[in-house]
């Protein structure tokens, strides 16, 4: 997750659609062409943050990413366990 002020979408806005379900707190954003979810506003942090799919970002070769497993089926327990990481 990144702080909202650090999030910049440079191109492709015309291909994005939003979707809400359940408690309607999270705002999921999907590409209408390929179906991937590049980012969303998470239910765990409904203001001030975006959860970004790192597979949709071009990083320089020297950047090393740490991927963390997150059990979305047991969302509340995963949040309580602290497995949802925030990047400064």
Description:
With 88 residues, the protein is mostly beta strands. The chain has a single domain, classed as Metal Binding Protein, Guanine Nucleotide Exchange Factor, Chain A (Beta Complex). 7% of the residues lie in helices and 20% in strands. The protein has one helix and five strands. The protein has one helix at 75-80; strands at residues 2-3, 16-19, 27-31, 39-41, 49-52. It has a five-stranded antiparallel beta sheet with strand order 1-5-4-3-2, with no helix packed on it. The longest helix is centred in the last third of the chain and has 6 residues, at 75-80. It is globular and about 35 Å long. The mean pLDDT is 84.
The CATH class label is Mainly Beta
In CATH terms, what is the fold-level topology? Answer: Metal Binding Protein, Guanine Nucleotide Exchange Factor, Chain A
Helix tally? 1
Q: Strand order across the biggest sheet?
A: 1-5-4-3-2
Number of strands: 5
Structural class: mainly beta
Main sheet?
Answer: 5 strands, antiparallel
Return the domain count: 1
Helix content percent band:
under 10%
Radius of gyration: 14 Å
- CATH architecture descriptor name: Beta Complex
Order of helices and strands: EEEEEH
- Alpha-carbon distance between the two ends: 8 Å
List unreliable stretches of 5+ residues: none
Q: Give the overall form.
A: globular
Can you lay out the helices and strands and say which pair or pack?
Elements: E1 2-3, E2 16-19, E3 27-31, E4 39-41, E5 49-52, H1 75-80
Antiparallel strand pairs: 1-5, 2-3, 3-4, 4-5
């Amino acid at each position: 997750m990144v702080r909202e002020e650090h999030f910049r979408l440079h191109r492709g806005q015309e291909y994005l659609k939003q979707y809400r379900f359940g408690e309607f707190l999270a705002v999921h954003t999907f590409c209408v062409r390929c179906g991937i979810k590049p980012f969303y506003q998470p239910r765990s942090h409904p203001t001030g943050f975006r959860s970004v799919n790192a597979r949709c970002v071009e990083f320089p070769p020297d950047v090393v990413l740490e991927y963390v497993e997150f059990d979305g089926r047991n969302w509340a327990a995963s949040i309580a366990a602290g497995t949802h990481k925030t990047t400064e």
